[in-house]
Amino acid sequence: MAFPAVASAQGLAFFMYSKPYLTVPQQIDLLRTRGMEIEDADKAAEYLQRIGYYRLSAYWHPMRERHADTGVALDSFVAGTTFKEATDLYTFDGRLRLIMLDALERLEVSLRTEVALALGAYHPKAHRLLSCLGRDFALPTFKGGPSKHREWLQRLDKRANESKDQFAQHFRTKYPSEDMPVWVAVELLDFGPLSHLVSGLRNHDLSRIGADFGGLRPRFVKSWARSLAFTRNVCAHHSRLWNKPLVNQPALIGSDVPQPLQHIQELPQAGKRLYSIASVACLMLQYANPRTAWRERFVSHVETFPISPRLNLASAGFPENWREQDLWR
Fold first, then answer.
1. Which of 326, 284, 279 is nearest to 302 (CA)?
2. Which of 135, 159, 158, 163 shows the shortest CA–CA distance to 148?
3. Residue 13: what pLDDT?
4. Quick one: CA torsion of 203, 206, 211, 214, rounded to 10 degrees?
5. Going by C-beta distance under 8 Å and a sequence separation of 6 or more, which residues neighbour residue 108?
6. In a 10 Å sphere around its CB, with 0-12 CB exposed, 13-18 middle and 19+ buried, how is residue 108 labelled?
7. Which residues pair with 9 in a beta bridge?
8. 58 in a domain, yes or no?
9. What CA dihedral angle connects 309, 314, 319 and 322, to 10 degrees?
């Protein structure tokens, strides 16, 4: 049966996917016809076989030519583009994710502890009591739907009932009819659910947490927790990180932005790329783990960014003088 290229349903047009399957040698031929230089076809085949054409395409995307009027990426590559540039960038990005994950893990643990201390002071199960939480947490996620708090609790309880972590199994065995106290329950929270709980705290408690990170205002604690959680998901799912736009951008505009981060407000892509969230992580780590050498490791790795006229750190939000900022010295 033949299918039309375009079909109409309720006024919407649907396009059939028409790109053909290509073997690895055919993929190499295609890249060459589009202008990419591939000196070692055997090594290129190994990368394509091991990593995949589609995943690698995210790393040669910056090297594609652009339409003169619209700026839309074309299939052809900028003259001089090599396959090695893409794989070097891929390797750089993989190590970058590991370095960022190290910072994010430390901050996740620190925020869990801060939340447990703040809520535990009210009641062992304060995370279940709206009277101990912010007003916004009582609002519905959508009109007529459950409250944000109820939806969050349902996910927590599901995790508590299904977790195979030893501490969770022990608690279920010893206290079969009890809900976990907040200082136990927080250990079930990944960064995403943790950031939702942070957003549901009262300003008084957000200020208390912010004080332990150098006096952050509540709006920064909430916004930065969401941004860090998004970045953690990017890293954990092995997605491209180095120049990925941040869906949850950290709040970095205003006179109350901490001094070490104020220079970011002057950047064209303030808050939108890697540099901003790496700067947030660096600042928070100074309080969460003062003796860490994470800053030095991050700087050392960024200095290995592939050298190419087709690639630049500005695409990741880095200003030219970023190393001269107090935050990184």
1. 279
2. 135
3. 55
4. -110
5. 190, 191, 194, 228, 232
6. buried
7. 12
8. no
9. -70
Per the domain annotation, does 182 fall within a domain?
yes
Separation between Cα atoms, residue 209 and residue 117, nearest integer Å: 9
pLDDT at 9: 47
The total domain count for the chain is: 1
Question: Rounded to whole angstroms, how far apart are CA atoms 132 and 64?
Answer: 53
For residues 222 and 217, what is the distance between their CA atoms, to the nearest angstrom? 9
Judge whether 5 lies within some domain: no
Q: For the chain, where are the E strands, in sequence order? A: 6-9, 12-15, 64-66, 73-77
Q: What is the value of pTM for the model shown?
A: 0.90
In 256-320, alpha helices (H): 274-288, 294-302
Q: How far apart are CA 227 and CA 209, in angstroms?
A: 17
φ, ψ for residue 65, nearest 5 deg: -70, 155
Q: Would you state the pLDDT for residue 57?
A: 96
Distance CA 159, CA 60 (A): 40
Return the half-sphere exposure (C-beta side, CA atoms, 13 A cut-off) of residue 291.
Answer: 0
Residue 22 falls within a domain, yes or no?
Answer: no
pLDDT one digit per residue (tens) for the chain, 329 residues: 444 444 444 555 566 777 889 999 999 999 999 999 999 999 999 999 999 999 999 999 999 999 999 989 999 999 999 999 999 999 999 999 999 999 999 999 999 999 999 999 999 999 999 999 999 999 998 888 899 999 999 999 999 999 999 999 999 999 999 999 999 999 999 999 999 999 999 999 999 999 999 999 999 999 999 999 999 999 999 999 999 999 999 999 999 999 999 999 999 877 899 999 999 999 999 999 999 999 999 999 999 999 999 999 999 999 999 999 999 98
Give buried/exposed letters for 19-37 (b at 16+ CB in 10 A, else e): eeeeebeebbeebeeebbe
Q: Which domain holds residue 187?
A: 90-328
